[in-house]
Amino acid sequence: MTGQRGSVDWLVGIDVGGTFTDIIGLNRVTGEIRDGKVLSTKEQEVGVLQALSAIDLAVPEVAEIVHGHTVGINALLSRAGATTGLLATQGHRDLLDVGRMHREFGNRFYDPTWLRPHQERPVIARQNRIGVPERVLHDGSVRVELSEEAVRTAGKELAARGVEAVGVCFMNSYRNADHERRAAEILAEELPDAYIQTSQLYPVSKEHERTTTVALDAYVGPAVVGYLERLSAALDAAGFDGTLWIMMMNGGVATYEAAGKAPVFQLVSGPVGGVTGTIQLARESGRADLLTMDVGGTSTDVAAIVGAQTPLTDLWTLETGLTLTLPLVDVESVGSGAGSIIAPNSLGQVTVGPRSAGSNPGPVCYGRGGTEPTLTDACLVLGVLQPDLFANGKIRPDVDAARAALAEAGRRWHMSADELAAAAYQVACEDIAAKIRTISVYRGLDVREFGLLPFGSAGPMLADRVGQILGLDSVVVPTTPGQFSALGLLQSDLRATSAHSLMIPLLPDNAEDIEAGFAALERNLTADLVSQGVDVEGLMFDRAVFAMYRGQTWDNRLPIPSGPVTAESAGAIATDFHAFYQDSYGFSAAEIPVVVSTVEVTAVLPRPHKVPAAAPEPGESLLGHRPVLVPGTGERVDVPVHVRERLQPGERVAGPALVAEKFATTLVLPGRSAHVDEHGLLIIESDR
Description:
- Residues 1-6 have low confidence and may be disordered.
- The protein is globular.
- The protein has 16 helices and 32 strands.
- Helix 10 packs across helix 11 (399-410).
- 30% of the residues lie in helices and 28% in strands.
- A hairpin with a 5-residue loop joins strand 7 and strand 8 (142-144).
- It is an alpha/beta fold.
């Protein structure tokens, strides 16, 4: 197919955030790169088309789009998902409320009035959670047959209440799914227009997490599937005839068809793209250990990259008691973003977030109706952000409006606009540093061995101060930090994950059964990809076991080497599990047999889209000097402003200084210096 302006040669990554939609395009023939940023829209498919226009791309020119969106997480956080029902085994309908009896640490740990988030803001109202007679035992045998009459009655009852989606999760159905499948068939007859999902979405043990996963999928399913359908229709209408990939939380992309079957696994797909981009950067630059800091409009997402490997967790918690079970990229968030609102907490202290101004109305300085000052307004008043350099000139922020809003808000603390701006900047940096500690120091990592990689347009303006707080030696600012997550989307491989719970001792005599479990998953994944029209040449498989000591009720995920499981390798896996347990918990019990609860396979199909580094532009890098109230000094001084695109390798910029580029500004603090290395990375280090 030939586009309106040329050949179908463009590969595009589009990341929708809470405030901005970021886009990066790569011409796979010429190597040309285009990047852009537009304000996010309520109808995100509109923002996608606007982003394509922002980089002057005609839709028919695009061969592939890799997309990360926020439809599901927005619906979940705001509790604006579908009216949802849940079918459970009789006697187990309150599992979502009971959870695992965990309490969140903090000021309310001993508060007797504290309610679990699902009790306070239910995803599924209790009257819509119905238990039906059935029971499958731990070995898959049936003790109580499914009451089809009870399921049909429940379906009629849910239909009468206007339920739009239903999740089905029965006890031990990971061993025998017949009851769930039949219940889904009956529900489809009684609610023909509803979204129906069963726990076969990811059929593993852990009853609570399996229930939560299917409940959240049902809750966001109609919104996400509806969005994907609208996006596909909008692209088709614009002449798109390429491939639409959707970023998933397992660190890879899925086809449009596959993504529609698992909406819950794309809740935070944008931040995952940033981690994927970091892995690629780590491997290319030789900086294998990095702490990521993705500062968006509504939050900051952090992750720890060790040995240039993707950090995975098999449990991801949105709120206390709402936990997904699947191998997901381990990203955590804190509500301090560029659009986060500066306001007092219950003790009257200055806080930044978690409330955000979003893109509509946005920060006060945007002039779109916002009245509460945000971190962006604070950085503008400090001079860290320069009005004429902001967002590549796409937005001209109003400094006077930002100053007036900060002055008004500062009265309660008897602070001037400058003082409140400096305080908010420091609070945001402290909050981000504290969150980074949770995924590093609190897990036994020595942060002094890591570099800090900031991205998102707001990341570089905070990173040097965050690095100082953490005691890091270096900050590594990537090229195009404002679109780095979109770049990561573009570089992501196709990944499809499946698992099956075996509950079998890890013994040489059981090696054949364990291998059969892996082989069956690999066959099924391959067949599924082929059915979606994917060329599976070059397909690889990553294997993992979930294992525990006999008598335990909680397992741990352990990646294992590729190749068949044999009697000999089963022993090696057991040895690796003991070593893993020793490293993770400080002890092991080699005398106790190991049980494999679940086998897991991830199919990986590489998508080798290498993005070439841009050569420095000719010309003097120094743009001039601007007044900046340098954080931590209390003084407003004239600092040099350098154009990043013109910095030559080895050229040093002494702090305090600003390094400006199209969609980001990096602040270099006093006693620090920055330079561009051979990979085009902007490195900030202490002058010591």
